[in-house]
Amino acid sequence: KYSTSQATVETDKYGIPLTPTWSVQELLSSYPAPSISPATFKRLHELSALLPPEEGTPEYVKLKHELEELIKLVEATKLIKIEETGNVGIPDGRVIAEGSGIPLDRTPREDGDVRGRDLLSYASRSANGMYVVETDRSR
């Protein structure tokens, strides 16, 4: 179904609106604001291998608010009703048509290219074929 609007929007010669016709922020403002508990906030950082800012700091408040806004966006997308088309295959997400892309298997290798495990020789620390990264955090 298509709907038309009586409101006219000023456009350029190609029909592109000169001003935004809607806003993601405006749309999301109608959805309830989720809340992340301090424990969830800390757990998300642990799962991301990041150190969370101290609770109560401006950085903590800002980051928590940004995460809550992202959660609101995700929840809003879950509410979108889509029509079942019966097609359960994977959508074609190619940017370049099949058969016309860059032949990666025939890309010439330049002399001096270092690939694969040879890259480990440039690491400051490695062990058993793996990179070693020091961390201050204890588990």
UniProtKB/TrEMBL annotation:
Protein name: Uncharacterized protein
Natural source organism: Suillus plorans
